[in-house]
Amino acid sequence: MNSNADKKETQPSITQKAVSGGAPMKRAVTVYAFIAIVLSMTSLTANGQILTYNGSISPSTVGGSVMTDLPMFNSALGTLTGVQVTLDFTVTPYAQIYNFSGASRTFTSANWISFSYAPSDIWTVSHGSDSWTLAAPTVTTGTIYGTGQVVANGTGLQFVGSTSAPADFTAESGLDLASYIGAGSLAFGTAGSGQVLGGGSFFTGGGGNLAGTASVTYDYAPVPEPGTFALMVCGLTGLLVMRRRSAMK
User: Fold this and answer.
1) Which of 15, 134, 136, 166 is the most exposed place for a label (fewest CB within 10 A)?
2) So where are the chain's domains?
3) Residue 176 and residue 127 in contact, taking contact as beta carbons nearer than 8 Å
4) Residue 144 and residue 99 in contact, taking contact as beta carbons nearer than 8 Å
5) What local confidence, expressed as pLDDT, does residue 200 receive?
6) What is the reported pTM?
C-alpha cells in the first residue's frame, strides 16, 4: 500500500504543470501569429483598386500634341499596375494655301484646293514610349474654289471643311506606366497624313482639327491601411517573442 508521502511524490507540482502546459501555449501563439501575418498579406495583395476618369480633348490638330483634362496618376494612392486609355476624336479636315511667290496673289475662281483622308492613311497616337495606330476617318473638305481673296506674300489661308467624322480607339493598354504618374493632365502626341490636291500658283497643304472625349482607367495596388499594418506587426511581434523565448532555453 502506498503511503501518503508516495502519493505526494507522484502528483505533479504546480511548477511541473506550468511547464508541461507551455508547449501547447507556444503552439497556439505561433499559430495565431501566423494567421495574423497571412491575413495581413492577403489584405495587402488582394485589394487591387480601379480608378476611372472621364474628360475631354482640347481643340488641337493632327500632327501636334493633344491635351486632355484627364489627371495623371497620383503615386500617393499606391503602385500603378495597369492603364487603359480611350480617345474618341471628332475630326474636321481643313485645307490651306500659302503664297511664297514674292508678291501678293489673288485666289481666283480658277484656283482650287481640297484635302481628304482615306482608309489607307494610318494615324498614330503616342504617350511616353507607348504608341498606338488607328485608321483615319474617310472625310474631306471637298473642292474649294477661290473667290478673289488676296493673299499677301509669306502668308496663307485656311479653309475648314464642313464635314467631320470620328476616329476612335477604345481601351488601349499603356505599357510605359511611369509616364502616367505625376501631376498635371495627360497629353498625347499625334501624327498622320492625308491627301491634298490643288490648282493655281499657291503652295498647298492641309490637316485635321481634333476635338472629342477621353477617358483613362488606372489599376493600382493601394497603400495598405493602418489596420493592415497593425495586423502584420502583431503577427511578427508574436513570432519574434516566441523565437526569443526558445533561444533563451
Assistant:
1) 15
2) 4-44+226-248, 49-222
3) yes
4) no
5) 86
6) 0.71
